[in-house]
């Protein structure tokens, strides 16, 4: 049996009042809610997501709801204590005894705890004119988990900024900070890093927390989702004594995790590994990590030049964004260093032409590049509600899929918070630089020509790998279409 009080605590008080709901029961994995009118599917989805339970509604008389709402007090506007009204981060340190443990503190902690327990990657606090909502990014997709009282907005934002060591009086400019959040008991729990970003909007500051949970970080190349052939090619490249290896993909596609896993495999007492990142996502023991400081001129290119005087064997550059960084990285690769970096392109072949477009001479790209890798993350079907289904013929024809392909989907259950997905897996497109590829690069061939040559040499595209993943029953056709192209 699930505790009624626990169920009430998971759902914001504003939700009970706004939608006129009454909690009737909470047991055996089912939440029973009394309603006056037929609720919207989105409301039912939100309730299931917030509680992790199957939601059942039943019509009740208005007085039943009134009686219940009488026990659910509308949140009052909490006062911001004097220690939290300061204009500098020194005037209010979150771990000092002067910080109260009132309702706002508890509410913020609960939101963060629940996000961690649900394996969210980000928490969004978003103010609008008529409401103040909270969303979690689960497996790459945002889900609204509730609305907070507008009266609490300023206090909650102040609390988050204090925890991150930011200036609560500065509301006109974006700020970045970090929180070390204690999850669980201090003796048996763990400390989780939260990266904090604030952004001024029309109706107040929006705050996004990126959850960096080391407990979920798997720095093992086999665990990333590589198949045997591509993994062998990637391993062969990272164990070369020099050259540059580039990983491409959109934001949030797992590029940094792939590079961390590669560095973890290469990390021994016999080599000197140095990284420049923006920002440092996870601390890796035995690896020298530096973060970009644009305020003092410490850019990727500037740091790279300094690294070359530090007797490095392996260098990781968080991202190649411009010609200057690309030139220094390639020079490092040509002078006996192994360089790993990321770049924003749609596929592996486009990585090569992007470097040329930046102004790098084709013969330098051909001489230094060892391997280009493109990757995407797709959501896994929840194993608890997975079932076989048929592929719609029109959908198959529109996206070039085989109509008779074996496909599966998730119906949605308490385990996956009614999403039908749980966890993610990676798709990899690996393009090693062969002699023929070197010739084509020197001849300034198009990305299309490079891609065709790579496919002739056995490269399997993201779409091909994705379709095989779909046919194995790991993901859905919709995910493959969403994350890959023809």
Can you tag this structure with a few keywords?
26% strand; six-stranded antiparallel sheet; alpha/beta; 18 strands; 17 helices; single chain; 33% helix; 486 residues
Query: For the terminal residues, how far apart are their CA atoms?
Result: 50 Å
The biggest beta sheet is recorded as:
7 strands, mixed
Rg? 26 Å
- The assigned structural class equals alpha/beta
Your description of this structure?
Helices cover 33% and strands 26% of the residues. The strands form four sheets. It has a seven-stranded mixed β-sheet with strand order 12-11-13-14-10-15-18, with helices on both faces. The protein has a six-stranded antiparallel β-sheet with strand order 6-5-4-9-8-7. It has 486 residues and is α/β, with parallel strands linked by helices. The relative contact order is 0.08. It has 17 helices and 18 strands.
Mind sketching the topology for me?
Layout lengths: L3 H7 L2 H7 L1 E7 L2 E6 L5 H11 L2 E6 L2 H8 L33 H15 L4 E6 L4 E7 L2 E8 L4 H11 L11 E9 L6 E12 L2 E9 L15 H11 L4 E6 L6 H12 L6 E5 L10 E4 L8 H8 L6 E4 L5 H12 L3 E6 L4 H10 L4 H7 E13 L4 E4 L3 H6 L8 E4 L10 E12 L2 H8 L4 H10 L5 H10 L5 H7 L3
Parallel strand pairs: 2-3, 10-14, 10-15, 11-12, 11-13, 13-14
Antiparallel strand pairs: 1-2, 4-5, 4-9, 5-6, 7-8, 8-9, 15-18, 16-17
Q: How would you summarize what this structure contains?
A:
This protein is of the alpha/beta class and 486 residues long.
